[in-house]
Amino acid sequence: MLTDYHTHTERGPYTVPWLENFLRVAHERGIAEYGVSEHGYRFRETAHLLDNPWTRERRTQSMDEYWGMVEQARKAGHHVKFGLELDYIPGKEKELEDFIRQYPFDYVIGSVHWLGDFGFDLSEMKHLWSGRDVAATYDEYFGILSRMVEARLYDFVGHADVIKVFGHEPDDEVFLSEWYARLAELFARHGAVVEISTAGLRKPVGKMYPAPGLLRACHAKSVPVVINSDAHRPEDVGADYDQAVAYARGAGYRELTVFTERRRRSEAMG
Known about the structure:
By secondary structure, the chain is an alpha/beta fold.
């Protein structure tokens, strides 16, 4: 069993023929469970959840278009899971919960991309890293991630240490190991599932998400995992999965989590 639930079709139209390009690659790479998980900020229905100049410019579509694509694909005989990557915004828990309940998702990915108005993983805002205290920024990020997990709104945690995307990492290994232990304990306490993502290999940092120390800490606490690519192009579906499977096995994992209608089960890793 291999999964790829974290994929984005936003570079093309919300049509079955465009989605079939992603499905074809998934099939070629042995992905048994494929799901699409568009960014929530792209839809007009999320204006009340995350609104800033950057998201406002990209909020051009409707959830009906997106869900309609998945419905049509299923009618055409394709096995497609319906998901969403939805930014966690502190203080918006009730609004996020109400929004999620409106749609028949198979899973919802919780992720953090914003520290206030700082979109820390955006190339347009990369220059804002200059002069920032890296450890303090990690503290802020991991603090918000912790609040997200405590809210228990999501089915799994997306790219848990995406804060390292541009290669900014604290030099203090004790600082990181302490955070990893705290996060793993938190994930376990709140029943979270953590994503192993190959996307970091295609980013400036050139590393898998999450870091080895965090993944080992998660395994020690029996935190379940799912493997995803975070593909934004068809050719990236299932990318570098040989490395991802070896990475997961190296940390001690032998099973992956599978989602249907927001219920989960474990399957032997492919």
